[in-house]
Amino acid sequence: MPYGVVCQTVVGNNVVGALGPIAGRTLVVEESMSFGRQVYEFLLSSSRAYAKWDLEVSTSILKNRKKLLILLALALPIMAGCLAEAYEYHEMLGGKSAYAPAFYTTTIFLASIAVGLAAGLITGCIGAGGGFIITPALMAVGVKGILAVGTDLFHIFAKAIMGTTVHKKLGNVSAKLAVAFLVGSIGGTFIGGAINKGLYNADPLLSELFISTIYAVLLGFLGFYALFDFLRATRGTAAAQNTQASSNAGMTSLSLKLQSLSLPPMITFDEDLVPGGRRISGWIVAAGGVFVGLLAAIMGVGGGFVTFPMFVYIFGVSSMTTVGTDILQIIFTAGFAAVGQYAIYGYVFYTLAIGMLLGSLLGIQIGALTTKAVKGVHIRGFYAVSIIAGFINRAATLPKKLVEMEVLHWSPTVVNVIEQVGNVVFWVVVAVFGLWVFSKFFLNLGKLRGEA
Q1: Do residues 188 and 115 lie in contact, with contact meaning Cβ atoms separated by under 8 Å?
Q2: pLDDT digits over 84-138, tens only?
Q3: What is the per-residue pLDDT for 230?
Q4: At 424, is the secondary structure helix, strand, or coil?
Q5: Using one digit for the tens of pLDDT, what is the confidence trace for 378-415?
Q6: In whole angstroms, what is the distance from residue 41 CA to residue 43 CA?
Q7: Which of 47, 353, 392, 406 is the most exposed place for a label (fewest CB within 10 A)?
Q8: What are phi and psi of 181, to 5 degrees?
Q9: Which helix (H) or strand (E) holds 103?
């Protein structure tokens, strides 16, 4: 009997009390593990949906000469300026001059290309979003948290504008769902942006601590679950094979419950797939939008990161309708967050945004081609390790921030060593992953050309 059925039977018949406190505690632990796996599968689905969007957008840009010329027109002056180090006065960005990011130099621009390249390789090769490592990577090279978030969002927005393919899927967009969701997501970006700016204005260290903690928790949870799945896959257990099946499930019990709630205004959708269509409250959709906008504005991950699994698994919207609506909303969500909450306040590092865009366009194509020449299980292993490296990097910065805020009283030497170890681990893992992908790509270049 499946675990979920066992739990329901035991709880429904009040057997926990009869089995004693030990059985009760065991049941709670197992339920917590089951909930943890559901959260992991949701995050993994989010990551895959974002990767699919990123690959489609990047391919659209590379196949269009006009878009490439626009990108080069933006990039060449910046590259020339970096090589000449033309800025005599290195103005600090983002206010708070004592706690500003690195100024405009060749090194910081090349670092941004490397960050974009690494994220692109992860996205293209692993098939899961590499965008969630961009903010930690920028922070690791010295860019302050609020600027890293704002710059990442602007990079996503610029990529969406240049490579959008929404015109191909307008027939699959539910206007009512899109409007309700965007009302919520735009409101969420204002809340998230206000939180980040408020913390930064109150104390830049508090802002750094907040962003690093969120990333450490998210990447730690996702990374270790991915590692466990990889170990199960290498041992050939059935548990690792169930993830794909669950991610392809249809209507969930949660989506059925939400659609049964009658909270006007009600939105009808999927009329072409279901007689009479399905219905859901606009308030529920807007609430989901608030969450996505909040997450996008705080983390700089882009609204598409969680929109797809939220629409499919929580709202019960068909995949066809979700794809078109997701592509439409990410432009507005990322745009409002990037411009309305960060750019107008000076929290976007445009040099880095262009560099990341250049690097990611190259990395995502190489990564996607490399998947034809490597084993899937190896890719899953690198996925887990790269996320854990990001977790280590952000977690290693927390002691130093707490000491600077006088919450901890550790030796400055100790916390500096911890932070440096976190940086070294992160960049070594990213470098090894990049070298491995490039080696596989060039060693199998003949084979890949033949397939093309």
Answers
A1: no
A2: 444 444 444 444 443 444 455 677 778 888 888 888 888 887 766 666 778 888 8
A3: 77
A4: helix
A5: 677 777 888 888 899 999 999 998 998 888 889 989 99
A6: 5
A7: 406
A8: -70, -40
A9: none
Q: Which residues contact 156 (CB under 8 A, 6 or more apart)?
A: 131, 300, 302, 330, 334, 338
Query: What tokens does 271 get?
Result: 């009329």
- Separation between Cα atoms, residue 216 and residue 299, nearest integer Å: 12
Q: Please give the backbone phi and psi of residue 60, each rounded to the nearest 5 degrees, phi first.
A: -60, -40
Which residue carries 């920028």 as its tokens?
Answer: 138
Determine if residue 260 is left, alpha or beta; phi over 0 gives left, psi from -120 to 50 gives alpha, anything else beta: alpha
Q: Where are the beta strands (DSSP E) in 180-329?
A: 266-269, 278-281
Q: Of the candidates 149, 120, 99, which has an alpha carbon nearest to the alpha carbon of residue 296? A: 149
* Four-residue CA torsion sign, 153, 155, 161, 166: negative
Q: How far apart are CA 121 and CA 363, in angstroms?
A: 4
φ/ψ (deg, to 5) at 267 = -110, 130
Residue type, 355: G
Q: Which residue has the tokens 């998210």?
A: 218
pLDDT surpasses 90 at 281: yes
Distance CA 146, CA 347 (A): 7
CA dist 409 and 406 (Å) reads: 7
> Which residues are CB-neighbours of 19 under 8 A, at least 6 positions away?
10
What mean pLDDT, rounded, does the chain reach? 76
Q: Which of 378, 357, 391 is nearest to 437 (CA)?
A: 378
Contact in structure between 292 and 306 (CB atoms under 8 Å): yes
